[in-house]
Amino acid sequence: MPKKQLDTLTEPMYYTLVALLSPRCGIEITEFVLAITQDRVRLVPGTLYAMLSKFESEKMIVETSVDGRKRTYQITEKGKDMLIEEYRRLKTLMEEGKPWMEELL
Amino acid sequence: MAEKKERLLYFPFEYSAFKPHFEQQAQRGWKIKEIKGNWLWSTLVYETCVPQEITFYTDFSVNSQYYINTKAEDNDPYHAFVEDFGYQYICGFKGLVVYASKKEKIIELRDNNQETKKELRKATCISVRNFLYCAIVELVIIFGGFHITTNMVSSNQGLLRLASYGVVLLGYVVALMPVFRHLVYEKKAYPIGAIQRRTTILFASLAFWVCCYITDQIELTLLLYSMGISLLVISTMKFKIDSKKPIALLALYGGTLLFWLVVYFGVSTYSSSFRQTLHVYQPPLTKESLHIQSDAPVELKSQESPLCRYISAEYDDDGFYSYAYIKDTAFKEYLVKKLPYEFEVIKKEKRSSYTIYDRVFDVVIVKGQTLLELDKNLYNQMSDKGIDALFKQLANIE
Fold first, then answer.
1. Contact status of B78 with chain A (Cβ, < 8 Å)
2. Is the pTM of this model over 0.80?
3. How far apart are CA A77 and CA A63, in angstroms?
4. Does A70 lie at the interface with B, CB-CB under 8 angstroms?
5. ipTM over 0.90
6. B86: nearest Cα among B111, B53, B116, B57
């Protein structure tokens, strides 16, 4: 049975791919995501490792260097396409809901 | 450096139960050093250390399900990944991974999202599958073992075996019940006490079967089992008692000895009250009673003797009998039905000294007395009439 492609990205997935626009290792990804979300999204090692393994098997990220036991990853073109698609989807959601949602705020 | 071992049966979804346990052990001066074992249970090896506060973190790993050797476990890339976050890998086995923290500010290893739950489920399923492979092989051995190697005669033994099967099955059900509750009802990790109890129940059930298998007799089973429990109590309790408290240790050994003595005398009383006392059977087999007319010396013609259809004998080197055997199943059943005594059928392995009959026989002994004692010259001369007389006498033994 072929593996199911990732249809949409969860919040941790989205931020992980954003972090990997530059080469980063695990701890750097966590610190980056913590910084840009102002401590709101905390990627724990167990979850992050599983996510990176999944991204790697889907060829959305690639291992760029191995320094001892430390591995650094970076997003691939396929990953970028997926990220852009997700970004556009989120943007569309915001724009389409804006006339009604602004009134609520 | 002293070591102590703890054998546990756990599953990956119980990983969080081990964190407080390892920390408590470290406070008592025992630091977790290694986990090894087999597909059924795991052995946690502790080494002595200065009693201290160590912050452990436990995690599960799908990959470590496959590891039997710890070197492969050490090379898991996940450990290197987690070490970047300030953890130090200690050991891992069968889905459980142990880290110690090097940092003051800790990042939790796992959160409660769907991805984690999915992974945990996968790890648990693999673990259960491996456990079942092992359990099935073991159950086949257990259920087949008695029937291959022994020959049940009395209902007493039948009940004992039935009990041993039931106990083993119960042990496995108890062992797997938490998995069922976790997978179906998504119950979370159990405390370490529950894991220890579950392991004890499984081991106790297997030990009961082993005792039944070795003795094949209720009294001996209970005795052997009580001795086993005594040893188990000593081995588990002595680690909990500070070695600087000789009185406590003395009480432990004394208490265990007392327990064993109580069981011993209890079983002895049970045995004598439930079993009939056999009047020592003096073989009343004379030539007259067996209708043997001839006085002439007789050659050994064991295969030709009519009695050989039913009874055979083992001889000492000097020609004296030592035991008699019941060869014929129908005759054995006849005896069981007719005689009001408990039979103990003891398996005799085929030995080279069994020169008369090259096959395996059952030795029938009643309360330590050989039931049939026949002179080889006598039984070779017995006619059919003599055999009938023998049957009659056997049926009337009191």
1. yes
2. no
3. 14
4. yes
5. no
6. B57
